[in-house]
Design goal:
The protein is α/β, with parallel strands linked by helices. The protein is built from 10 helices and 12 strands. Helix 1 packs across helix 9 and helix 7 crosses helix 8. The radius of gyration is 18 Å and the shape is globular.
């Protein structure tokens, strides 16, 4: 995906002009996470699709420049996916996505030789939420499970999740080892909107480990095997340090997964995720 970032100078004025600054940057939830994983020194392979166009070639080069290995299918019929990101003066973002060539991903595009015991598959929930790529996402989870890999699913977005229905989403992803969600997504999945800790615990009926991101309130994790809940605070920001929240969850996932795969203590792994999230929101864009 290519992010077209529009940083608004003030409130969005409907049916008129809203001054701001516009820039184009690499984006996409899974691609962002891959870049941050590479930044931690992890071996990251990104599988996806681009269009046969300049944005697609630039997106591929940007991934490789950060150290990410890529397996990219080129779709000659559709343009590279693009998302318009509106960032308000408080740093909160609203996204208008056009997946474009992303929709070309099929189960046949999975690099089966890369699915090996001891490796980890991280899947963006957008792959499951998009009906065109759902089969590929489900096939990836199934293949990873059969090959003895651990898996994580980032729920991705509360709006599309509510549109398809939480029961259907949970049925599609099966039983991944780990589920990563934010507060709103966890509320949609469980119907518990006033107690994120309770929502986190409820979701471990479906998978071994659940991590729920709480923004400025930090993060909570529940481990079903040990019946243990851990909460870690967010890294504190100084006045004016919050610039753009785009990619914060993607960076958190990378920091957490990189530490977890190195057998870090749970608190240390969660704190590592929070540190990367704090890095990304101090600047414009979702990449290192």
């Amino acid at each position: 995906m290519v992010d077209v970032l529009a940083q608004l100078s003030g409130p969005l004025v409907a049916a008129s002009d809203s001054p701001g600054r516009i820039s184009m940057r690499g984006g996409g939830s899974a691609a962002n996470t891959a870049c941050w994983l590479a930044a931690t020194g992890s071996d990251a392979l990104f599988v996806g699709c681009v269009g046969d166009d300049l944005p697609g070639r630039e997106a591929a080069e940007a991934l490789r420049a950060t150290g990410v290995r890529t397996m990219l299918k080129v779709d000659p019929a559709r343009a590279t996916g693009t998302v318009v990101v509106l960032v308000d003066p408080a740093g909160e973002r609203t996204m208008v996505p056009d997946p474009g060539a992303n929709c070309a991903l099929t189960p046949m595009d999975l690099p089966r030789a890369e699915f090996q015991p001891g490796r980890h598959l991280h899947l963006s929930g957008y792959t499951i939420l998009n009906p065109d790529t759902r089969a590929a996402g489900m096939a990836a989870l199934d293949l990873a499970h059969r090959r003895g890999m651990t898996t994580s699913v980032d729920v991705a977005s509360a709006g599309p999740l509510a549109a398809v229905g939480p029961e259907r989403f949970l049925d599609w992803i099966g039983n991944p080892f780990m589920l990563i969600a934010n507060r709103d997504e966890a509320a949609v999945l469980t119907g518990i909107d006033d107690d994120p800790v309770a929502a986190t615990r409820a979701l471990t009926e479906l998978c071994d480990q659940v991590v729920v991101k709480l923004g400025a309130d930090g993060v909570v994790r529940h481990d079903a095997l040990f019946d243990r809940t851990i909460r870690v605070p967010a890294e504190q920001l100084g006045p004016g340090e919050l610039v753009d929240t785009t990619g914060a969850g993607d960076a958190f996932a990378a920091g957490y997964l990189a530490a977890w795969m190195r057998d870090a203590d749970p608190e240390e792994a969660l704190a590592a995720g929070c540190r990367l999230a704090a890095r990304v929101i101090r600047k414009v864009g979702g990449r290192p």
